[in-house]
Amino acid sequence: xxxxxxxxxxLTAQEGEFITINCSYSVGISALHWLQQHPGGGxxxxxxxxSGKKKHGRLIATINIQEKHSSLHITASHPRDSAVYICAVPxxxxxxxxxxxxxxxxxxxxxx
Amino acid sequence: ETGVTQSPTxxxxxxxxxxxxxxxxxxxxxxxxxxxxxxGQGPQFIFQYYREEENGRGxxxxxxxxxxxxNYSSELNVNALELDDSALYLCASSLPGxxxxxxxxxxxxxxxxx
Lengths: 112, 114
Hints:
The complex is a heterodimer.
Chain A: E1 4-7, E2 10-14, E3 19-25, E4 32-37, E5 43-49, E6 52-56, E7 59-64, E8 69-74, E9 83-90, E10 100-102, E11 106-111
Parallel strand pairs in A: 2-11
Antiparallel strand pairs in A: 1-3, 3-8, 4-5, 4-9, 6-7, 7-8, 9-10, 9-11
Chain B: E1 5-7, E2 10-13, E3 19-24, E4 31-37, E5 44-50, E6 53-57, E7 64-68, E8 74-78, E9 87-94, E10 104-105, E11 109-113
Parallel strand pairs in B: 2-11
Antiparallel strand pairs in B: 1-3, 3-8, 4-5, 4-9, 5-6, 7-8, 9-10, 9-11
């Protein structure tokens, strides 16, 4: 079963700073999800990526399948980016019907 | 295109009672997964339904059961509630194949068991 490690667990930064959140997993996969969860619980899917890099606005996600590692970057961070960021991968290398395994999340606070 | 919706938003139940949570999938999605998220933890996979059949299950006891309907909406039923069942319950819909398709999450139902 896949194991997911995220770092850091908590991150406080000043508005405008460049943010990096890291995710490592143990079993080879074909795609990884980055999710955002705000206070109150709702989860929003930010990215699903299987190789290289994806960019959406100020968010950039990269993945290295060989090294089993992904990073989420936020450029020009803003207080509204404050949330918990979670990476998730298929629980087993075959994907399929075994659900996602989630990291414990990175609690990000951006101070004005 | 409508998003994933869940009802109710919040729920308080007493230990030993039964509860039913509901999820309406993203339009066109025939796969739904349910997750339990305890406070301060990442979500844990409960089970997945595809075309009205359970086709995957996590490490949860049989008192957690589900249904998926022909319109792909879904229910999560929990019998004999325990205090540890207090959590946020999330459903996520997708096209088949977690490795290939994006998961669309609902806002969650927060269940408190007293």
